[in-house]
Every structure is written in C-alpha cells, then in structure tokens.
Amino acid sequence: MTTVLTIGVGAPLAQHLDAVSSATHLGVAALEAPGGLMARLEEAGQPEVLVLGTDVPLDRALGLAAQVDVWAIPLSVVLVGPSDPDLWVAAMRSGVRDVLGPDAGQDDVAAVLHRCGTVARARAEATRPVAGHGPGPDQGPDHRVVVVASAKGGVGKTTVSTNLAVGLARSGRGSTVIVDLDMQFGDVASALALAPEFTLPDTVNGAASSDPLVLKTFLTRHPSGLYVVAGSDSPAAGDAVTSAQVAQLIATLSTEFRYVVVDTAPGLSDHTLTVLEQATDLVLMSGADVPGVRGMRKELDVLQELALVPARRHLVLNMWDAAGALSTADIETTIGAPLDVVLPRAGAVALSTNTGVPLLQTGGRDAVTKGLQTLLGRFLPDAAPSRPGLLGRLRAGAR
Ligand SMILES: Nc1ncnc2c1ncn2[C@@H]1O[C@H](COP(=O)(O)OP(=O)(O)O)[C@@H](O)[C@H]1O
Ligand SMILES: [Mg+2]
C-alpha cells in the first residue's frame, strides 16, 4: 500500500486518501515546527507520496516541491489545485509529479496515488539511498566540496570533474552539482552535451545568489540527475564575477547539495583559491610529462604554504603511457608523494569528450573507465558492496 503524508488537505480528500493508502495527515502549522518538511517526512517514515493541500499557499507549495526535487529523494509530490494549464506548467517546473482537483473522486485519487507510488518506488530502486545518508540540507560530515585543479591546461580536469560528478549523481548517495569555474574557456556543458539556458554569471546576481530555491531555477539538469552551473559563454561576463560572488555561490550550493564538484581554470586563479577555502577535497591533476609533473609539485608546495590543501587530497596522473619516457616511480619521486590514481592515455576519452557522453555514464570496462571508477570510489567511503546484477544472482543461485 502506498505511504502518504498530506499537509493542509481538506477532509473529503483526506478520506479518499485513507481509503486507498496508508496516510498521515498534518496541518500547515507542521511546516513551521523545527526541522520543517524534512523532519516531518522523517517522522512519517519517509512516505512515497507527499500531498500538498489547498491550505498551503501556492507559492509555498511550489517552493517545497522544488526543494524536494533538489533533495533527489524517492518522493512524488502531488499538488491539490484547480485543473488550470498555467498551474500545471508551474507545478511541473517545480518538480510536482501530479495535480489533484480539490473535489477529486475516489477513482481519480486512487489512479494518481498508484502512478505516484510506482514512480517513487522505481526511483528508490534506481538510486538505492543509503540509510542515514539522505541528501538535503544538514548533511553532516559526509558533505563534500571537491575542487579539481592543475598547474597546466589540457591535462584532463574537465574530463575528470564531469566523470566524477556524473558518477556521484548516479551513485544515489546524494544530490550532486558541478560548477564550471573556468571563466574563460569553460567547457563542462559541452563535455556533458548540454545547451544551458543560464550560465554562472546569471547565478551570482540578485536573489539567486542567496536563495537556494531561486538558484535552482538557474541550474541545468543532466539526464544522470546531476545539476550543472555552466561556465560563462562570454569571457567578459566571466571576468566580471568576483571571488566573493564565487564564495557565496559555493556556500549556497553547499547548503542544498551533498556533493559540489568544481572544475577550474589552469593554475591558481583567485577563484580557485577562493573555492579551496571551502573545499573538503582537492583533486590535483597532471599529465605524464616533466613540466606537468614539476608544475604539480610546485602547485602543491604553494597550496601547502597558503594552508589551502583541504583535509583530503587526491593526486591524479592522466594520459599515462607505459611506453613513455617517465616511469610512475620517477614521477612520484619528483612530486615527493605517491600517486593516488593513474589514468592511461586512451582514444575512448577523446571520443567521449567529442560526443559529450562521460565514460562513467556508459560504464565501459576499459582501463580509463576503471581508473575513473577508482577515483569515484574515494568519494564513496561508505560504499556498500554493490548488489549483484541479474547475472550475478543467477550464478549465485546455480552454485
Ligand atoms: N586519458 C586521456 N587519454 C586521451 N585523451 C585524454 C585523456 N584525458 C583527457 N584527454 C583529452 O584531452 C583534452 C583535454 O582534456 P580536458 O579534460 O578538457 O582538460 P582540461 O580541462 O584540464 O583543460 C580533451 O580533448 C580530452 O578528450
Ligand atoms: Mg577544462
């Protein structure tokens, strides 16, 4: 039976819901109690469907739906309201799954609940959230801001940050956003085959800069569930963005997303140093050439002097070629630290860049994809052993 939480729903509709589901009914005042909606959902045992009744002001209801959408939890939101096309459009944009008329009959209620319950269960299955690690505000110690940086350009920062972000979004561990902080030549949107309506400069002005719900409307959604703050398509507009604005953007995103992945421009720009102040993780990258590796060493030294190396550091060597002049041992000696992940040079990467389909979206079995999965694994420390697929279960049954 579908589990339902209703807020501000009138008596006749509540009775219809009781007849076909296991429902908890609350008044609008419940939204003002400590913890707000998130706490009420938890108290109601994480229901599959949330019905927002006509007692909830429309703006408030749409805002709540947008918030639930960002949390990316397996919950379908139903709005009670008139069957007005404008309302439908606004509702769908906010992430509402279905709209019920205030005087809907028993059959309508049953049909809507059936659809919404099915979607919520499918989403729960697809994302398999880990108990106690739900996304959303107040995310606790597992909350991560990951900065991907390098001394030189063209070493694979965008490749790694987009793959990591898509991998995190697909992992179901929590809502994920990627921010393209390469103000001049950002290409995160292109690496994800997205045509964004808004870019970073749009997000740092006006209400979007401090209100997470407004900000969300400026983000672009990737099919993996990942949210994207695309880079500026005009270098001039990008240059006008100040470090304080960048800091505010990352802080606002951090309140709503469990994972914030930041792609950066080469070198140590002001913007990169600014986000490092809020970072929990630094992914420092280099190509497998002498100048690149020396650059990595220098960048690490400077960041250490500035006390800007976050708690977790991941050294990634990219475009490794076994036939090349440098051995990984030479490279580790030059850097003065062990490499955490080595990604080989592979044609599959260029193909993925050109088609805009990250390797972790398709899940191939080649060496680069495996290396990217190893890197992803470093951000999922509580990773439960993955459940065997159908084939694995058949094999286990045959034993
Ligand atoms: N491991 C790799 N093997 C082959 N080509 C790669 C590899 N990693 C990145 N590339 C290619 O190198 C180019 C630059 O990568 P990119 O991620 O844009 O670097 P950056 O963001 O550091 O400038 C892209 O065309 C990408 O396809
Ligand atoms: Mg780049």
Automatic annotation (TrEMBL):
Single biological process term from Gene Ontology: negative regulation of cell division
One GO cellular component, as annotated: cytosol
InterPro entries according to UniProt: P-loop_NTPase, ParA/MinD_ATPase, YlxH/NBP35
Record's keyword terms, sorted: ATP-binding, Nucleotide-binding
Pfam family, one: ParA
GO molecular function terms attached to this record: ATP binding; ATP hydrolysis activity
The name this protein goes by in its record: P-loop NTPase
Organism of this sequence: Goekera deserti
